[in-house]
Amino acid sequence: MKTQVEEINRNIYDFKNDDNYEYKIKKGLTPEIVEEISKQKNDPDWMRDFRLKALEVYNKLELPTWGPDISELNMNEIATYVKPKSALSSSWEDVPDDIKSTFDKLGIPEAEKTSLAGVGAQYDSEVVYHSMKEDLIKQGVIYTDMETAVKEYPDIVKKYFMKCVPVSDHKFAALHGAVWSGGSFVYVPKGIKVDIPLQSYFRLNSPESGQFEHTLIIVEEGASLHFIEGCSAPKYNKVNLHAGCVELYVKDNAYLRYSTIENWSKNMLNLNTKKALVGKNAEMDWVSGSFGSKISMLYPMSILNGEGSKTEFTGISFAGGGQNLDNGFKVVHNAPNTSSVVNAKSISKNGGKCTYRSYVKISENAPFSKSSVSCESLMLDDISVSDTIPTNDIETDDVEFSHEAKIGKISDKTIFYLMSRGLSEEDAKAMIVRGFAYPISKELPVEYAVEMNRLINLELEGAIG
């Protein structure tokens, strides 16, 4: 019987195409390499200058000294730009067969037909496919790749690009600013309700490379949107790097839900940055499933700047042997009557490590605010690790704040009870874990809930026997 997650057949995610690219930049990180990326992308002058300044900031900043050890990351061994042999297309038929078959296996075209209003698909460093339903275009909704946005909507991009996540935020935000490529741009005009989700899917195929997509979403006053992000990569024996950036602007009385399932392979360092600025009476919801990567450092953040604004975070992490997933959530209450609800869960097995790291700040300008944080951890054996590291900075007395943490092992009594009702030990454990994860999966679109349950089943195969 299989005993290690590495032995599991992950064919649906681990298949890989030949490293067959049109252009792959030489490994390393120098001003010359950054200029070459800018040249390859035909950047306007202002973007080239922005990249070079971001590189200067990167070189001045230190690696984080807390959290997982990422010393194995050597930028001299990473190619920061890989251009696939495919131009951007609005028809799946025009996408090259090897790339199209990748997205076919992942179910992206089928999902677009049945349940999505628009799709973007990125392969290595470039978006290869993009489309949106005609009625949304007529309502003024913009959904395109970031390179097109830089050229066709320069005034909007200049106003918002890396203003929510400045390059000075941390070393990998600066790295992103220097070498970003691909990603999605969404603009929802005032009062427009996008009822069916938009989705972008990011696939990294090339070994010893990085993916640095930039997602910029602006939901104007009174508008609403659900955006879905999916990511995966095949497994190699060398380090790959993901350092994307997500900037979300949720204007007064607007609503945005951002759902992610990350299933990077076990050689990926996932050092992503996500942040939202939330206006008056606006609401920002995050739904996050983190299943892959060797190391993850990911802490989505909501900044509640408008009175009466709300945010909710619902997330789950699943760490197997050799994985260190350091995930969490950050929220800053900057206005009165704001509220945040955090519901985080983690599962660890085979010596995997899950850390929930949170930061809640309620400023003196935010009386009558409410914040509730709940994190639960489930360990499937005696060698796995789970930690909770909360930081709470409360600057006013007129608040309601609660933090609850539960860490426990899977119950032998519960397994015994379920087995006495006719279930096998394997099915009993799977039922317990799926029940533990249900509050997360029920918040996902149905295709992603199915994918998450399939991932749980894959991971559990290695935990039993």
Descriptors:
465 residues; alpha/beta; 2 domains; 13-stranded mixed beta sheet; ten-stranded mixed beta sheet; 25% helix; 36% strand; globular
Q: Can you put this structure into words, describing what you see?
A:
The structure is a single chain. The protein is an alpha/beta fold. The strands form 3 sheets. Strands 5, 6, 8, 9, 11, 12, 14, 15, 17, 18, 20, 22 and 24 form a 13-stranded mixed beta sheet that branches. A 10-stranded mixed beta sheet has the order 4-3-7-10-13-16-19-21-23-25. Helices cover 25% and strands 36% of the residues. It has helices at residues 11-14, 31-40, 45-60, 97-106, 108-115, 134-138, 146-152, 154-160, 171-179, 412-420, 425-441, 446-461, and strands at 21-24, 82-84, 118-123, 126-132, 142-145, 184-188, 198-203, 210-211, 214-219, 224-232, 240-242, 245-250, 255-263, 268-270, 273-278, 283-290, 295-298, 301-304, 310-319, 324-333, 339-348, 353-362, 369-379, 385-394, 399-409. It has 2 domains: 5-298, no CATH class; 411-465, no CATH class.
What is the 3D form?
globular
How confident overall, as mean pLDDT? 85
Q: Unreliable stretches, pLDDT < 50, 5 or more residues?
A: 1-10
Number of helices: 12
How would you characterize the largest beta sheet? Answer: 13 strands, mixed
End-to-end separation: 6 Å
- How many strands in all? 25
- Could you tell me the radius of gyration in angstroms? 22 Å
- Number of individual domains: 2
Category by helix and strand content: alpha/beta
